[in-house]
Amino acid sequence: MEKSGLKRVSFYFGIGVVATLAVLGSMQTAGALFGAPVQPAPQCKISPVDAIKIAQAKVKGKTIQANFEFDEGHWVYGVMIVQGNVIKEVEIDPMSGKIGDVETVTPAGEAKEMETALNSAIGIKSTPVKAEKGEREEKAEKE
């Protein structure tokens, strides 16, 4: 990726992280008021740009999105990389920089996952998200 492209991704990612943290702060306050379980405060030692670079070293392709998300009980960077006609999501631990799961994902599966997370945040119960046809998980190699 060119330097200017990485700067642009970094800039938009930074804005997304700030907005996400602001929304999450509001959601945590609302959740605490209504008795919902409170997730741990987000923490990270590596930057979003470093997370993107780590993911790109693991999966070659074009980075299209990076999120700082609460997934399965812990915070991770989720970096989406297009590889041919396949989308890979690479999870990066924000404290250590270690690569977690590498998943092949679909737009439909990601949309359902987002819908479930947003509904949960506002107190609407959803059916659990199942993997879409063609969506699979690949455990990362130990590095």
Please describe the structure with a list of short key phrases separated by commas or semicolons.
single chain, alpha+beta, globular, 3 helices, Nuclear Transport Factor 2, Chain: A, disordered C terminus, five-stranded antiparallel beta sheet, 143 residues
What do these coordinates show?
The chain has 143 residues and is of the alpha+beta class. The chain has one domain (3-138): Roll (Nuclear Transport Factor 2, Chain: A), CATH 3.10.450. Helix content is 40%, strand content 26%. It is built from 3 helices and 5 strands, in the order ααββββαβ. A 5-stranded antiparallel sheet has the order 1-2-3-4-5. A hairpin with a 2-residue loop joins strand 2 (74-83) and strand 3 (86-92). It is globular, with a radius of gyration of 15 Å. The model is unreliable at 137-143 (pLDDT under 50).
